[in-house]
Design goal:
globular
Length: 119
C-alpha cells in the first residue's frame, strides 16, 4: 500500500534551517505528484509547496516562496523540503501528500513531522 513517512522536523531558532524528508513506498514514485501541506497549531491546513511527476515544475505558496525549496530524489524515492530563513509563523505539523491524479490532489498522507521555530 502507499506509504509516506516524514522525518527531519524539530526545534530551530528564527533564521535557521531544516531539511524535511518524506520516504515513500508502495507506488511508482515517478508517476506521482507530491505536495507539502502544513497545519499550524490551532489552525487549518495550509498548502506549502508542490512538485510534478517529472520534477521539472515546482510551486510555492507566497508565504514560503524564496525561502523553501522542494525537490525529489528518484533514486531514493524521497521527497525533500529544504527550509531556510525560518520564521516563527512556519511553526506547524508538516505533511507529505501524494496523488497520481495531478497537482494539488491530496489522496495519500503521511503522519506528519513537527517543526517549531522559536528562540
Amino acid at each position: 500500500q502507499v506509504q509516506l513517512v516524514e522525518s527531519g522536523g524539530g526545534l530551530v531558532q528564527p533564521g535557521g534551517s531544516l531539511r524535511l524528508s518524506c520516504a515513500t513506498s508502495g507506488f511508482t514514485f515517478s508517476t506521482y505528484y507530491l505536495n507539502w501541506v502544513r497545519q499550524p497549531p490551532g489552525k487549518g491546513l495550509e498548502w506549502v509547496s508542490a512538485i510534478n511527476d517529472s520534477g521539472r515544475s515546482t510551486y510555492y505558496s507566497d508565504s514560503v516562496k524564496g525561502r523553501f525549496t522542494i525537490s525529489r530524489d528518484y533514486a531514493k524515492n524521497t521527497l525533500v523540503l529544504q527550509m531556510d530563513s525560518l520564521k516563527p509563523e512556519d511553526t506547524a505539523l508538516y505533511y507529505c501528500v501524494g496523488s497520481d491524479s495531478g497537482l494539488w490532489q491530496y489522496d495519500y498522507w503521511g503522519q506528519g513531522t513537527q517543526v517549531t521555530v522559536s528562540s
